[in-house]
Amino acid sequence: MGLLLIMHIKLYNIRARKKFAATIAKNTELIRANMNIANFSHHHHMNA
After folding, report:
1. How distant is the alpha carbon of residue 17 from its chain centre?
2. Is the pLDDT of residue 46 over 70?
3. In whole angstroms, what is the distance from residue 26 CA to residue 28 CA?
4. How much is the pLDDT for 23?
5. For 1-48, what is the HEC assignment?
6. What is the C-alpha radius of gyration for the chain, rounded to an integer number of angstroms?
7. Is the alpha carbon torsion for 8, 12, 15, 21 positive or negative?
8. pTM for the structure as a whole
9. Mean of the per-residue pLDDT values for the chain?
């Protein structure tokens, strides 16, 4: 019973970690995209 619970918790942790990693990856992509847009508009205004 105890061992089964430990196994279940380990599996849950692995899934949660994967989901967490995916969320971080998405957020990083969004931040990077926003920074690129900000840099682009900044340079665009500088040139104009």
Report:
1. 11
2. no
3. 5
4. 96
5. CHHHHHHHHHHHHHHHHHHHHHHHHHHHHHHHHHHHHHHHHHHHHHHC
6. 21
7. negative
8. 0.55
9. 86
| Identity of residue 27 | N
Amino acid present at 33:
A
pLDDT at 24: 95
Q: What's the sign of the alpha-carbon dihedral 34, 36, 38, 41?
A: negative
Locate 47 and state its tokens.
């040139």
Tell me the two tokens of residue 20: 């967490």
Distances 10 to 1, 15, 35, 36 between C-alpha atoms, Å: 14, 9, 37, 39
